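Q: How would the structure tokens look for this protein?
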Amino acid sequence: MMNNNKVFFNWLQVGRFLAAFWVVMQHGQWQLFFPTSPVFPENVIYGHYGVDFFFVLSGFIITVTCQGYFGKPERLGEYFIKRFARIYPLVFLLCLPRIVLAFLGGEQLADTLQQFISDVLLLPNNTKHMINTAWSLRYEMFFYVAFGFFMILGKRFFWSAIGLATIVIFYYNLKGASFEGVDRFLFSKWNILFISGCVLGEVEPFFRQNSKRASWIAVILMVLGGYLLLSSGLSNSGHEGKSITDVVWSSIFFSGSIIGLCCLDYKGVKAPKILILLGNASYCIYLLHGSILFHIRNAIQQPYVECAVSWLAVALVLIVSCLIYLYYEKLTNNWLRKKWLKEN
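A: Here is the predicted structure in token form.
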């Protein structure tokens, strides 16, 4: 939906929350659904596919919102400021308590500070994460940086570079190559999900003008992607166990999901306000929930008590995340934009 040259996708916010909640269920499935199980059950929630949705959605949103930046080097600073304002303040806030705890607990403060800097800056390396789910943000920021520099050179160069990158990524992943340094991010199979989202973002105006056709395309992609995922066997081993073909099938399915959610907005279907709010807070939900649930698992040994407390913790994560979004994340984002950008 268009308004004052800005695109508002309320149903994508709903999808963002559902994906974040899916990840929460994944990380808490043992204590939330199998409290008396003596061993960790097989992956029955498949919440790691929620991260696939986030990657495709990130590529889609960044392409849609940056159409006016292509071929304009003078806007590169503005692009990075907006990315910084959106991503980094929350990571800083959630990592900060670790420094305080390390200081009070007598841990090696120098090592903790080094890890803190690496995590807060989301540097493309393989160090341990203070926030368990922050691994995906490193891939996301790496892609954002590459996107920005390709973007300012114009659309022809951008899509040529994206096409070449896709070929190289497929070549190395199908070859079974292993990577340890920055090349792990450069040739990552997750880039296929981002690229799929970029393609969707580029053709989004067509979907908006042809919502009926877009609805059929959404259904076809979801059915096809779902069939391919099921026929190839859903990955039980989480992110690392996915092959490049698994990622492709996932990108097809979630591309259809995103088109379908957009169609709801195109057709004027109102999204519930509470779900929009939770969608806005989903970034915090995604980063905050893991540490809380894992600490409960380690601290409480009584299964039913752990189960009850874990569900209460999930509810608390949702409430706290909304408060952090409203009174920190949103305000900080707006303040940084007003301070560093001339117009917004």
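Residues 2-340 form one domain.

The two ends are 19 Å apart (CA to CA).

Upvote if useful.
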